[in-house]
Amino acid sequence: MDVTPAELKTTREALGLSSEWVAEAGGVAVRTIRHWESGAARVPDDIADLLNDLARQVRAHVDSSAARTESGPITLLRYREQEALQQATGLRWPVATHAIAQLRAIEVLRDHGVTARLLWFDPAEYAAWAQNRSEASPEQWAAVQPWERKA
What we know:
two-stranded parallel sheet; 2 strands
């Protein structure tokens, strides 16, 4: 599938991806990414596929969140660190990409009349909460967080 330089850069930026992340994921140098984005060379199919696959995953994530049946309030989590995101969700997306997906999900939920919010995930708070539970998940922790929190 041919991807134009503008599509490559736009997709990369819309997903919150740095040139460095795409270069590492694609096994190329950062200057190669910039070369493709400038139009100096054709964007290889494997790089286009990499970004298109991630965009599809983000859309699926948003669709899954929007398909939730509870009427709210719904709390989605935002992660500050890559390690916490990966441990909690299994996702290898950059934190910025996940943040963009969560924001899109909140927007869709609100568009459907669902009260929804985005809350910072606090690993220490979560660990203390989960300590006395046989089964715990970040989503369960998020659901019991007070709607009004101190700044």
